[in-house]
Amino acid sequence: MTTNTNIASDIAEAKRRIKIFDTTLRDGEQAPGASMKPEQKIVIARQLARMGVDVIEPGFAISSPGEFQAIQHISRELQNVEICGFARCVKADIDSAVAATQDAARRRLHLFISASQIHLDFQLRKTQDQVVQMMREMVAYGKQFVDEIEFSPMDASRSSEEFLFRVVEAAIEEGATIINIPDTMGYALPEEFGPLFTRVREGVRGGDKVVYSTHCHNDLGLAVANSLAAIRHGVTQVEVSVNGVGERAGNCSLEELVMAIETRGDSMGVETGIRTEHIYETSRLVSRTMHFPIAFNKPIVGRNAFQHESGIHQDGLLKNRNTYEIMDPEAMGIPRSMIILGKHSGRHAIKHRVSEFGVSLDEKEMEELYNRFKAKADELKIVTDDVLMELVGESTDTIVQPYSLVDLQVLAGSNRSRIASVTIRSSADGEERTYTGAGDGPLEAVIHCIREAMPVDAVFEDLELHSLSTGEDATGEAVVTVSSAGKRNIGSAVHKDIILAAAKAYVAAVNGVILAVRTKEVRREAAGE
User: Fold this and answer.
1) In the chain, which residues fall in CATH 3.20.20.70?
2) Its Gene Ontology molecular function terms (predicted)?
3) Which superfamily does CATH assign the domain made up of 403-526 to?
4) Predicted structure pTM score
5) Chain centroid to CA 276: how far?
């Protein structure tokens, strides 16, 4: 029999659902250089819906005809997610936002107006009374088109509380159903920003009858912290962007906020509906589309977020992942490559990496490899897979890699296709074979050649190029990701010629696919399968 005590306990343990409002396509696109074509915005919107965001703010409809069309397309196609039309407290803005989102299955209007005195004096050049009247008229006007009106007093964290309370109260009286209190300039501190929501809720007439949201910028690196503080004070919607893109230093990062809740949600009593396995894919899509590189040390999705070079850390990870990781990267769709080999790496990590390629070394061979490795690690920042396999071959007097790149030449010109010639050696028969190919770019031509030389079912998925130094003698690092049978393999290489580095990285990645298949077959035979 269920008792009232048990019911009360279950209710107390139930987590509060936090809505994820994504503004990548609106505020995110306002970052200098982040502008996207309408068709690109549609692709990202589909991915956001797939990832499970609750609300998409697809753009600023009045800003351009292309923007209007993109919002209209997204509203018509994505019927399983709420669409938010964004507008200033200006009639023309509202008309445009309403028209662009009219085919959405669920929609709201998001109206904003400045609330800080510095904005009123120097931007709007209006008095507080004029701002309140202007806001009242536009909220009432927008209310005739939609049931849900979200209102944002811009620069709220630098506004006087007296005027903030006044403008919020007026918005509620005119029919606003969601009050978004933004830290527009990233100025607030968590200990002052969170309690602000409690004071608004308690100090404004009707303040306990509306939903609260927040929109934090990252100028002081506090956007996620301020958003979490707001959640602790009753906020049930957070406005975020993928990779934290947005004006100036950007917005609250979707992936950081979501994973903070995913990892520490029990202590906060909250959860989201985000399907975390899509986080990495979405991050990469936005980065490539906007041509915004992701910092190596970016939490969650940065290249170094789940990679370790320190021997002490590597040893702990190989024994138990939880020793130095609080999240599972694979649960976010991040390829598992936690061990990075460099001068701080120890024997355990090197042996583990070699074993992943199906290579077993005795004690003498391991010691020989370790000595060669340390000498090479002093020379290079990172010992890439192709270099490691070369060292293994030198240490064991064998050829470990299934294929190796012997020679590469590319003919390029401004008015012709690029032509490449690649010579590949196969360890199976020791033969060297030369292949030629053409493409619109030199790398495309090279990849065509290598695909012909290495007939493996592996899709070239992604290429990263990084400069490792400056000046005329700069070297570049190439990181290539290929997918095969639903799994990703990563190859990397370093060279002064970035085309050669990319080619070597691609060969290393495909070699990884081949060796992984061989290792799997060997293990099956050993298990008697």
Assistant:
1) 15-290
2) 2-isopropylmalate synthase activity
3) Alpha-isopropylmalate synthase LeuA, regulatory domain (3.30.160.270)
4) 0.83
5) 11
